[in-house]
Amino acid sequence: MNIISTIIAGVCLLSLTACDNLRNWNSGYLSGGTDYLSDNNGMIIDCRGNNLSLKHKPSSEADRFWQANNLPKGTTDFVCKDGKAYLPSKVTDCQGNLIAKQSGGISQFKLNNNFPRYKDGEMVWYTMFNCQGSKVVPIDYTNK
Questions:
Q1: Residue 59 CB neighbours (<10 A)
Q2: Which among 90, 85, 73 has a CA at the least distance from the CA of 45?
Q3: CA–CA separation, 68 vs 85, rounded Å?
Q4: Are 88 and 98 a contacting pair, CB within 8 Å?
Q5: Are 88 and 77 in contact (CB under 8 A)?
Q6: Is residue 29 predicted with pLDDT exceeding 50?
Q7: Helix (H, G, I), strand (E, B), or coil: what is residue 80?
Q8: Residue 86: in which H helix or E strand, if any?
Q9: Alpha carbon distances (Å) from 12 to 3, 21, 126
Q10: Is 47 in contact with 83 (CB distance < 8 Å)?
């Protein structure tokens, strides 16, 4: 009888461990895991359209991105202009005017300049553009 109790206890422990592993795998899969920088809107991309890895080797892609663009560590809200990231309150349009001080701010700037809004029914959250003289040219990484 003691052997049967031990076997039953072992089976119960193994099944609980398996369920816990599956639960953790599933939540990591659905949330995008913890290897890439993300916020409530999904994974964050850099100014070239690449996901920002949080894996350290010796520093992460995200750490190097923040440092290269003089952004506070942990920043997920930024605007890419001509390949460089700026805080929304610091970015200028192609004529050198702060976008944040313009009527409607970043949202109106995106509407006025035909930035992509949806891709496959999903909202496009990033803001990226290049300047060709004084003309704003939105960058569309939704086709990647």
A1: 11
A2: 85
A3: 9
A4: no
A5: yes
A6: no
A7: strand
A8: strand 84-86
A9: 14, 14, 47
A10: yes
Model pTM above 0.85: no
CA angle 62, 65, 71 (to 5 degrees): 105
Which pair of tokens denotes residue 73? 């560590």
Give the side-chain half-sphere CA count within 13 A for 131. 13
- In sequence order, the 6+-apart residues with CB closer than 8 A to the CB of 47 are 69, 80, 83, 84, 85, 128
The string of pLDDT tens digits covering residues 54-102 is 998 888 999 999 999 999 999 999 999 999 999 999 999 999 999 999 9
For 10, other C-beta atoms within 10 Å of its C-beta total: 10
For β-strands 79-81 and 128-132, DSSP reports them as parallel
Furthest C-alpha separation in the chain:
85
Find, among 125, 133, 63, 84, the residue nearest to 141 by Cα: 125
Nearest to 116 by CA among 142, 79, 85: 142
More reliable by pLDDT, 117 or 34: 117
**Among residues 140, 131, 46, 141, which one has the least CA distance to residue 91?**
131
